[in-house]
Amino acid sequence: MIPALFRRFRSPQPDVRNPVDDGLYRNVWRHAAGARLALAGSMLLLVASQVVKLCVPWCAAKAVDALQAGGPGMFLHALLWVLGVLGAYVGSWLLHGPGRVLERTVGMRVRKSLAETLYGRLAAAPLSWHENHHSSEMQQRAGQATGALYDFAQNQFVYLHSVVNFIGPLVVMRSPDMYTLPLALRSLQSPVDTEWGALMAGSAIATLPLIVLFVLCSRQLISGLTVGAVK
Questions:
Q1: Angle between helices 24-31 and 74-124 (to 10 degrees)
Q2: pLDDT for 87 beyond 60
Q3: For residue 74, what pLDDT is reported?
Q4: DSSP-H helix ranges across the chain
């Protein structure tokens, strides 16, 4: 949607380059001018939040180990590790909250800058071009383009969450017996051979809880999506 919109607004001058050809991240960086420090800060805070959150399963495992080890100080030792779990959650959210605020601020800046660029190109277009392109259609396309780049800029925490949750266990866990399900599925693939049977079976097992959850809550989900759709 964004590349098509820019191409339709492209100036006839041969030395004008289509900025969308640079990709989404370069355009986010370009249109975040004036808020680039906030962009870098939000990325650092969100990554740090997920790194701290990786301590939760480790502290929980240590609490279980303390209970299994027994001894007179068993419960106190386990309680300390449980407090570590709670502390990791609190620390993660203390980093995640400001990171999301900065991220949404950057998204608004990107949306404003892109909208000014698009409407500037519309204003600079000749009258003959406007005669062949309805103004309401162009406004809709501009709104869709700015909304798409805004959503991409202010939802980076989703991608960072997935990356850290995949790379973190991969770096920490040395034994394949301790791999999480995504890592175990990834280990079944290689440039030489792929165990398709085990890979498909593992993928089915991974999606089974989501299917069960949808079946149990489908009525609530559908009603929530359709609320306000019909007046």
A1: 80
A2: yes
A3: 80
A4: 2-8, 24-31, 36-53, 55-69, 74-124, 127-131, 135-153, 156-172, 181-187, 196-226
**pLDDT higher than 50, residue 14:** no
CB contact set of 157 (below 8 Å; sequence gap of 6+)? 46, 96, 99, 100, 103
pLDDT tens figures, 152-211: 898 888 888 888 877 777 776 666 666 666 767 777 777 677 777 777 887 788 788 888
Burial class (CB in 10 A: 0-12, 13-18, 19+), 150: buried
* Total domains present in the chain: 2
Q: How far apart are CA 79 and CA 111, in angstroms?
A: 47
| Amino acid symbol at 129 | W
Q: Single out the residue of 45, 34, 24, 167 nearest to residue 101, CA to CA.
A: 45
SS3 156: helix
Shared-domain flag, residues 111 and 197: no
pLDDT number for residue 103: 92
Q: What is the pLDDT of residues 202-216, one digit of tens each?
A: 778 878 888 888 888
193 in the same domain as 137:
no
Q: Cα(167)–Cα(48) distance, rounded to whole angstroms? A: 13
What is the pTM for the complete model shown?
0.66
Rg of the chain, C-alpha, whole Å: 25
Alpha-carbon span 169 to 187, nearest angstrom: 13
Q: Which domain holds residue 195?
A: 175-231
Shared domain for 91 and 156, answered yes or no, is yes
122, 132, 148: which is closest to 10 by C-alpha?
122
